Amino acid sequence: MNRLRGFTLIELMVTLAAGIILLAVGIPAFTTMMANNQSAAYANDLVMALNLARSEAVKRKVPIAVCARKADSDDECDGNNWQNGWLLFTDINTDGDYTLANDGPLLRVWGVPGGTMTVLAAPDFVRFTVNGELDNANPLSITTELAHCTGQQGRAFTITATGYVSVARAACN
User: Fold this and answer.
1) CB of 97 within 8 A of CB of 76?
2) How much is the pLDDT for 127?
3) Over the stretch 94-115, which tens digit does the pLDDT of each residue have?
4) DSSP string, 6-38
5) HSE on the CB side for 114, CA within 13 Å?
6) 121 partner at 20 to 30 Å CA-CA among 50, 107, 140, 149?
7) Assigned domain for 65 exists
8) The whole model's pTM is what?
């Protein structure tokens, strides 16, 4: 006797229903995880830029600044509009604004894909002295969030007067 082996229609429907339920639960969690990872990546890039500026200021014995990058430009600062990325440069004339003639070559450029990050509060630039301290005696703060930010996906950066950079999660607006 030859018996056919396989799945019944009911077994197939139960398996598909279980799979759909797992997807319905998993996709929102995956989306949240991806947003958190992207926010952490941008935060790490900015912390790296600030720490690099501090160490370069000490190493080169000249003021080093980080400023907001102007959209579609790799050599212009853009006030406190940090969502396009940032520039790292020697700030010889200590004006916080990059010009090749006055400050020399750029040290590094960071970009952020357009429309993915919003900066809620930030100074026009951050400059470190030859001692690795902020040129401003007051601590500075930068607060960022991603597009479609929810919960605690924002980031709050604090730069102390001694130049120490810290980052913490922040609530979205």
Assistant:
1) no
2) 93
3) 888 888 778 878 899 988 866 6
4) ---HHHHHHHHHHHHHHHHHHHHHHHHHHHHHH
5) 4
6) 107
7) yes
8) 0.80
CATH number of the CATH domain containing 22: 3.55.40.10
Quick check: 116 and 108 in contact, CB under 8 A?
no
Residue 159: beta bridge partners?
Answer: 140, 165
Among 50-59, 119-128, 163-172, name the most confident range.
50-59
DSSP 122-149: --SEEEE-TTSSBSSSS-EEEEEEETT-
Strands 165-170 and 154-159: antiparallel
């500026």: which residue's tokens? 53
- Whose structure tokens read 């040129």? 135
DSSP 109: E
Exposed, middle or buried by CB within 10 Å (0-12, 13-18, 19+), for 76? middle
Range of the domain at 132: 9-170
Question: Using an 8 Å Cβ cutoff, are 38 and 30 in contact?
Answer: no
Rg for the chain, CA atoms, rounded:
24
Q: Tell me the C-alpha distance between 161 and 23, whole Å.
A: 48
Q: What is the pLDDT of residues 120-147, one digit of tens each?
A: 888 889 999 999 999 887 888 888 887 7
